[in-house]
Amino acid sequence: MHHSVELTDVHVRLGPVDVLSGINIEARPCEFVSVVGANGAGKTTLLKVVNGTLRPSEGRVSVLGHDLSQNNRLNFLRRDIGVVPQRSNSVRFPIRVEEAVLMGRYGKIGLMRRPRKEDWDKAFEIMEAVGIRQFCKKLVHELSGGEQQKVALARALAQEPLILLLDEPTTYLDSSAQSEIMETIHTLHHQRELTTLLVSHDAHLVEQYSDKIYLLKEGKSCLVK
Amino acid sequence: MSWTEILRFPFMQHALVAILFAGIAFPMIGVFILSLNLIPLRFAMMHVALLGGAIGLFLKVDPLLLGLLFCILSSMALGPISEKMKLGVGILSGYFMTLTLALAFILIYKADIHVLEAFNILWGNILSLTILDLIIVGLISLMILVMVFLFFKEIQAILYDREIAMAVGLPEKSFYYLIIFMLGLTIAVSMRMIGALLIDAFILLPAMAATLISRSLKQTFFFSSLFGLLSGMAGLILSFFLDIPTSSTIILVASLIIAGCFLFRRRLSSYAKAR
Fold it and tell me: If we measure between CA atoms, which residue out of B99, B71, B70, B96 comes closest to residue B85?
């Protein structure tokens, strides 16, 4: 399977606004690629295009060897794409950390099927790797912002994805927590041989971890590293 | 008249059976409404059911069946329309809510529908349920319970975060439309049981009470069903001994339960955690 992400001349229009106008980005297998840009540059829109939530008005998006514009089985494709969204879920929903992490496997477990012991083992293994095993019985909304980000990361990894998408994973975190989460992401990227696409507004933070860095500005992308 | 004597009457037996079914299942819809912020949609469905009921009275067709039909059709349409037009569910619900309410009252006025019949649409009457009503309530309750049991993990993901549910590869849109569809059915049937204006209390208040003390979705469903059953049964029994309207008594008991949960939230939460 092609373990990569390729955007070729992608345009995205939301209402009257051209959010992305000619994006060319490639993440080869096992590469750690960062896309940096100011707030409102279209970083989140970019990730939504990669996981098929948004269809581009022009251009080609290829993920894991599949052209997304031709693909009607996005749910199956998404099972191999782990997503760490930007905002933490601030709603007081009663869910424990272990359940929230296990949720990453729901797509692969299948409809109407109960999680098996192997699924729980995988979830606990991921929690251990990310460093949140000790919180497993706590409710997610009782955790700090940084801990909630780790839960989101663990959930994405519990999917056993081939591609990992991260939307500003260090938002809401202080500087020491930012470094900690980036180290965790980078370590797990190598351990699990992922293709990682991370978007951030902080170029200095991501520079040391990235194989490639694209700058997103005025709807266009430019390779800077 | 003693309680055992009252129980011999078919209308009382019907009411008890309806409360047994609906008290357990309908508050689960309340959990969906609260978790997905579907309160505007709930109002819209209520008013659509009201319009259907008014048309039913005008055409001399069973208002419950027509209210059900209108809710089925609108609940099938609202979700896809809001996604297609990229309009929030709240905005679209507001449109449907005001439009259908206006049409319902125009019809009630112009068709010269009797005031008491019009009030029955608004208030409902749990003591006048037929066998057909019970069958419908039973079927819808069973559908809700089966849906929650079979698709618990999918529902949990969608109630937690729809974007995450989609991201992990679940058919999120299909389940969201299914939830809206079940909401529409439940609202229509509830309208018949306790009336359009009091639906909130039967569906929402038990769910609200449950969310105050629960530490998991399973607990939320369990407590919402328990409180739904309790408020229904207690309301029915108390209404006879106190000689006050049954629907209103159910509402009062549900309100007391939620007030009690609010006041004793910390104490009850520790107990729920220990379970």
Answer: B96
